[in-house]
Amino acid sequence: MSAAGIATDDDLETEGPPRWRVVTTLVAVVVALALVAGALWWWLVRPPYGPQAMAARATVEVVTAETELAALRRLGGAEAEKVFLAVEPGRQLIVGQVTWTVPDGASDDGQLAVLVIHKPTNAVAPTLFGAGARVGQGWDGRLDAVGHEYDWLSAVRGGQAETALTAPGDAILAPADAPGPVTFVAQFRPEITQLTADDVLVALVLIGPRGQLYWAERLLG
Question: Can you tell me where the transmembrane regions are (predicted)?
Fold first, then answer.
């Protein structure tokens, strides 16, 4: 074999880009992709607006079977009569209202939730009905994340339901662009017999279209 057919070390080093340059380029590409992915994720999960933009407020009052209907009418007019709750013997009732302003350009691609909690027992109201534009009631499993993200909403973590269901109680649910106000009545557990308005916590939660928790705002209590 002739000498011309034997590759030397110098020949091998010049057959392509230096190894350090390849490694550096690959690292730069990976970092760039990570930055792009991070920016995209932030864009997808970022809140479209904060709680301040909604200027939400809440008010509550303790009522009896005799004063419940009058309180509902005073806060929500005739529309609120439909959530009148025939109180069970010995059960404590709260009538209240949450008001907010829908920010310009708000989308219905998401969900608002109103939570009512009895602070002394750290329990979500087991029965909660609301009257307002496009509202309903029940429970959304996506709210479970709220109790883990906010210590003051630990009652939402579950395990406190009165029935065999795993939901901790009821919530008022509405599309993210539903206008306020919402007038509500909440009934608490039989063992709660000395209820005051100061015992009640009211929160407004915004959940994104992918189930991500945007924020929770403490409105009362």
Answer: 20-44
The arithmetic mean of pLDDT across residues 96-104, rounded, is 95
Q: Please tell me the pTM assigned to this model.
A: 0.78
- Which has more pLDDT, 21 or 128? 128
Helices (H), strands (E): how many in the chain?
4, 10
Query: Could you tell me if 23 and 167 are in contact, meaning their C-beta atoms sit under 8 angstroms apart?
Result: no
In 88-177, the DSSP E strands lie at 93-99, 111-118, 123-124, 127-131, 136-138, 171-175
Across the chain, what does the average pLDDT equal? 84
Residue-by-residue DSSP string for 79-106: GGGGG---PPTT--EEEEEEE--PPTT-
User: What are 195's two structure tokens?
Assistant: 């209820």
Phi, psi of 124 (to 5 degrees): -70, 140
Residues composing the chain: 221
- Name which of 161, 143, 159, 157 is nearest 214 in CA terms: 143
DSSP secondary structure letters along 132-155: STT-EEE--GGGHHHHHH-GGGGG
Burial label, 219 (beta-carbon count in 10 A; 0-12, 13-18, 19+): buried
pLDDT tens-place string over residues 101-112 = 999 888 888 999
C-alpha 119/C-alpha 152 separation (Å) is 9
